[in-house]
UniProtKB/TrEMBL annotation:
It comes from Pisolithus tinctorius Marx 270. InterPro entries: CxC1 (IPR041320). Residues 41-124 form the CxC1-like cysteine cluster associated with KDZ transposases domain. The lineage of its organism: Eukaryota, Fungi, Dikarya, Basidiomycota, Agaricomycotina. This is CxC1-like cysteine cluster associated with KDZ transposases domain-containing protein.
């Protein structure tokens, strides 16, 4: 029986990332320093290529991964300092630093999603990106990136 995405997160991915996340957080000094890592070599011969867009404070970058059951994308991204947008076969990953900042931001600001969306749009514009479609619902913006390079 095939699991739904939320079940995959709940029963497989999040439990498997808990200890590595805590280790990464400690080793990176709460996401401030990069962590050198080396994934174990695998002989399962089930490797597939995966191209993912990574977002952090400074840039968007495309990253190519070789994923397999021994080295899943979520674990590789965690050790790179990112969190994937999907449990299997993600196409987008966001830096742990940026997620930490956004978590703190949402703890401190009043619930004004329009202001947040407009701020994000202005921030991306200053980096040379342009929002192709005006989206006033931040939930949509979170889950469906609609910006492109100018």
């Amino acid at each position: 029986k095939k699991m739904k995405q939320w079940q995959q997160w709940l029963h497989t991915v999040i439990p498997s990332l808990l200890q590595p996340y805590l280790a990464y957080r400690r080793l990176s000094n709460h996401f401030w320093n990069p962590v050198d890592y080396e994934l174990p070599m695998c002989g399962c011969h089930q490797t597939r290529k995966l191209r993912v867009i990574c977002i952090d404070f400074n840039a968007l970058q495309s990253v190519d991964l070789a994923v397999c059951p021994c080295a899943p994308a979520a674990l590789q991204f965690l050790w790179m300092g990112y969190f994937p947008c999907a449990p299997l076969g993600p196409t987008l990953a966001v830096s742990l630093q940026l997620l930490s900042f956004v978590r703190q931001l949402f703890m401190c600001i009043p619930p004004n999603t329009s202001a947040w969306c407009e701020s994000l749009e202005a921030y991306l514009a200053a980096m040379g990106y342009k929002v192709d479609t005006k989206v006033w619902n931040c939930h949509v913006l979170y889950h469906y990136p609609i910006f492109s390079t100018s």
